[in-house]
Amino acid sequence: MSLLLQYGIIVSVWILSLLLILIIPRQKRRLAMVALFTTVLTIVEVLLVQYTDLIRYVRWNWFWSWATIFLTFLITRVFCVVYFGTMTRVEAAKKKNAASTTRS
Predict the structure, then answer these.
(1) Which of 6, 79, 85, 98 has the highest Cβ tally under 10 A?
(2) What is the pLDDT of residues 62-100, one digit of tens each?
(3) Where are the chain's structural domains?
């Protein structure tokens, strides 16, 4: 598989994970939804491996694909929580600071 194709797959999985994280509302079943979405992606990959010559595994199987996609989703979620949570706190502090300086 070419390097450009591998890079495209990695970027597309990252974008899908970001969209999934933004779409799923805050609920207890978020982890189950991520696992379900990961399973669907892995099933599509397994079907591509079995019925086409687009992917050829060398020391790789469906479990490693599932685990890496799932970890990509989790790492993206952690990044979004940390980054956007920090940005929200910074914006709130700026608003509070601006409000307190205009009162004085």
Answers:
(1) 79
(2) 899 899 988 988 887 778 778 777 666 666 777 777 777
(3) 3-103
Chain centroid, CA 59 distance in Å: 25
- Name the one residue in this structure whose structure tokens are 């970027």: 11
The residue behind tokens 């969209």 is: 19
Burial 33-68 (b: 16+ CB within 10 A, else e): bbeebbeebbeebbeebeeeeeeeeeeeeeeebbee
- Residue 95 C-alpha from the chain's centroid: 31
pLDDT on residue 2: 65
Of 10, 28, 30, residue with least CA distance to 20? 30
